[in-house]
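Researcher: Structure prediction, please.
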Amino acid sequence: MLLAQRSGRIPGLPAAAQTANFCTMREAVEENGSPELYSPNPEVRGMTLLNREAFKRTVVVPVLKVKKEIVHALVKALKHTVLQRPGLKRVIEDPEDEGSKLVILDPHQVPEFSLGQAEQEVLKHLNIPPEVSRYNLELTYENFKSEEILRAVLPEGQDVTSGFSRVGHIAHFNLRDHQLPYKHLIGQVIIDKNPGITCVVNKTSIIDSTYRNFEMEVLAGESNLVTKVKENNISYELDFAKVYWNPRLSTEHGRIVELLKPGDVLFDVFAGIGPFAIPAAKKKCVVFANDLNPESYKWLLHNCKLNKVDNKIKAFNLDGRDFLLGPVREELSKALVLEKEAQKPAVHIVMNLPASALEFLDVFRHLLVGEPCGAAVLPTVHCYGFSKHENPAKEIQERAEASLGASLDGRCATYLVRNVAPNKEMLCISFQVPADVLYKRPCPAEGEEQPSRCTFCSFRPLLLCVNAVTAWH
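Model: Predicted structure follows.
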C-alpha cells in the first residue's frame, strides 16, 4: 500500500548513498512486506455492531536508536524508509535513555529487520549505530483507514465499498446486497473517518419517481438531510431527501455554462435546484428555468435569492412539455422578430432528464409557425440520455432523430458525461434544431391570394392563415 519512491539528493552524503534510490527495497516490499501494520485484529471479522476496542492489536516494528540532536537529519535522509502512517508518530521517546529517541521504520521497507546498503551508508555518514531494534507498537481503531476496517469486517473476498458521494455533511452510498448486514457499522466508520460528515444514507430505490428523487435510509448520524453544497464556486442549499442532486455532474454543469456568452438565452427544461441556471445568470445570460417537482422549484427560488440572481431568472413549476409548448415557444417567437442578426442572441435549451428527455424532442416538430427567417438563429439543444448500447453515441443519435422526425447526420455532437453503471453510459447530444423541423409554414386560406410580405422582415408573410397556431404580428 505504500509505494517505494525515489529519494532526493541529500547534500553532504556520499554519492553511493545518493544514487542507490532504494531500488532493491521496492522488490522487498512486494515479496516480503507484512500486511500486519495495515490490518486490524482479525477477530473483528463478521462484526455488525461497531466495537472500536476490538480493533486493537500489537505489531513488532523496526526502530533505530538516535541521539536527539540528529533525529531531524536522519528522518530527512531516510524519509522513504521511516514510518509514514497517518495517526502514528514516527519518532517516540526512548524509555531507557532520555538523551535519545526511537525512530520507527516502515516494516515494509525494512524486511527481516535488516537495513540495505544505501541506508547503512546514511547511518555511517551520520555516525549512527546500524543496529535495528524491535519495538512493540500498539495499533488502535484510530490508526486504521476506513477501507482497512471494512475489509477486516466484511467476509473475505467480498467487495468493500469505501467510495461514496458527498453532499455537504451527507455521505451517500449505494450498498450492495452482501454489504447490507453491515450497513450501520459502515455508516459509523465513515462518520468517524471523514471530518465534516455527520449523516450517512443509503439509496433504497432507483430514481423512477416523477420528481427524480429516491427513497433513502439513514445508516448513521443525524437525520438532518437539509444541507449546503458548493459547486464551481457557487453555493446551493437543498433537502437531499426531496430533490435530485449529483455531485458527479459538476464538470458537466461547468462545461455547458462555458459554452454560453453574456446575453445568450438559456431555457433549462428540467432545472432542479439551478446548477445550470444560476451560473448562467451570473454570466449575464437571460435564463428561464423550470422544474415539475414543487420541492425543486422551491429550492430553485431559494438558491436564486441566495446567489442574488432572483431578478435575472424567470422560474416555472411546469411539466417539461408544457414549459416547451408555453414559455419557450412564446419567447422564441419574440426573439425571432429581431431585424439584424447581430442583435440575435444565441439560444440554448438544456434538457437534463436522462431517463426520458429524448422522448420530449418531438415537441420541437413545428413548434413555431411561419417561414424561417434568413437571419434567424436556430436554438441549440443539449439533451441527455442513458445508453446500454455497444455504440452509445450512435444509439442516442438514432433515438433523438426518431423523436425529431429528421436526420441529424453531420448536424450533432455527442459527449460522454459519465459511466453510470457497468455497461450504462450517460451522454449529452447537442444540435441545432433543423429549420424544417422547428417551423410550420403557413398556407393561405382556400380561395385567398398569397399574403404580402412583411415590411419589417421580407422573409415572413404579414398575415398567417386561419390554421396557424401562432401569429407573428
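Model: DSSP finds twelve helices and 19 strands in the chain.
Researcher: Thanks, that helps.
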